[in-house]
Amino acid sequence: MLDDTLVKMPAPNALNDIKPPKESSIDISSLKNNIVSEEESIPKEPCHKRLAKKIFCKKTLYKRLPILRWVKEYKLSYIVPDFIAGLSVGLTLVPQGIAYAIVAGLPPQYGLYASIMGCYVYALLGSTPYLAIGPTALLSISTYSAASVWGPSAAIFLCFMSGIIETLLGIFNLGFLLDFISPTVIDGFTSAAALTISSTQLGSLFGFSVEGEGFFETLIEFFHHIGELKVPDTIMGITSLICLFGMKYIGTIKLTKEGILYTILNKSMWFIGVARNAIIVLVCAGIAAGIGDPDKFRLVGNITAGLPPFSPPPFQILNETTGEVILGFGGLLQETSFSIIIIPIIAILEAVAISKAFAKGKKLDVSQEMIAVGVSNILGSFVSSYPVTGSFSRTAVNANSGVKTPISCAITGTLVVLAVAFLTPYFYYITKSSLAAVIIAAVISMIEYHVVLPMWRTNKVDLVPLFTTFIAGLIVGLELAIIIGAVVHILIMSFGNARPRVSIYVSEKDDANTVVVRPKENLVFPSSDYFVSLVKKRAKNAGTVNTVVLDLTLVSRLDYAGAKMLKSLSDEFTKSDIEVVATNLSREVKKTLTGIRAKKFENYRIT
User: Does the CA dihedral 323-326-331-337 come out positive or negative?
Assistant: First the structure.
């Protein structure tokens, strides 16, 4: 049997350095030759075959089809909470879907169409049981610019294209690109979106129509036509809004006393809070139907009955009368290009942020969530859906209902299918004022006013991208606002890299002084000139200097430009007979300095 020393050797080229044990008759050179010949005799598997094995393995299948994982662990005890959760979300989704379609500038039925396919797809591909997929306020207002001009075809096209982008980002694990959009930018964007959406619903809340682009123009139009308000709609709208806030509060009340009566009361109050949208819309529709005068209130009117046809998404805009092509694929792509970029960003940010918020500390597969949302939009475009993503309010309902698995999404989708198939004729008397109240109540909580004071106390600079994005969203539009905010935040971070904090002090002695320089941040290319001028200026003011100590304790990253800068600084001081010593270098920093042959730095102490 071979000696353990020989058996454990991993590489053939290391065998020359091994000395066999005494009295061993093993020929090392022959053993080396045998190992080399064995390695050479093993044929290397082609790259495409290795990739195919990685993709089509059981682990990848379970990762990309999470239903295969959780369905094996499904218990009969999960049926009731999943059914209750699916039903509760459905009762919220149906009135919200109709309302959000109006926000998107589409006929009401398209909000219901958008609520179907995503539910079934997420039941198959979703990695968390909590997320509720469907139309949201942010995506609805982002779709408006295209849908209001080119109609439903443009919205469906946007759904397909955004789904393609989201899926590709998930497949290639490119979600990190969205990290450049900071939470402060998102807070400013959502706050501006909430005010913009609310402004578009003020007219419906008071019983008249308002046409305007953006927050300020819509607000001006609203006050210009305020004399046209209808008293019945105004009373119904304001009352509905007050009731929605009151019912939301009732849903949070929990009686601590024990007993069947108190249990029933707790469940009843919880149901009132969860189903408040459906209750308000149905009660208002019942009042309008009971009065029987279609002119008394502004009504949704006839909604196209039946399920949407299953057909490929439109890649051109046609004239409904003549069938002529108004806008081809290239033109449609050009007209919606901005929305095609912005909508996937918003969709992914919403879905991932909501999933993380409800993950309860569990690891979240972000790439899988992106794929699930992307495929929901791709397949949704085949049933006339406009872009969808996760909804915070409906996800909260799902979680509070005790959901166990994503099968609740399929139950929600089935409820919407039944509503579209059989109940649309009864939606005629739904009042626009009640839908406006539902929308305003839903988006008003999106105004992130509570983050301002913590930012002011911790880092006031973060308020700059927050308010820049917020103001830009109200003035130039939401699509541009998120880009402006991201650019401003990147510029602020770049300025921080260009002006690193540096601590410099002088140790005075009789014959000469020592200047100790301690950068408190990483040294990268934007900061090179600033750092050099700062050190040289301080060394010049220090009088007679014989040593400059660079304490790099807090520097974890040093790029090529930063290393060249330190070397040039060292060379310049050396010419003036000033010794330069670098201390407390991390391994990465030392490796970088060694890579540019900075021989002047001899005193390393690796931390």
Answer: negative
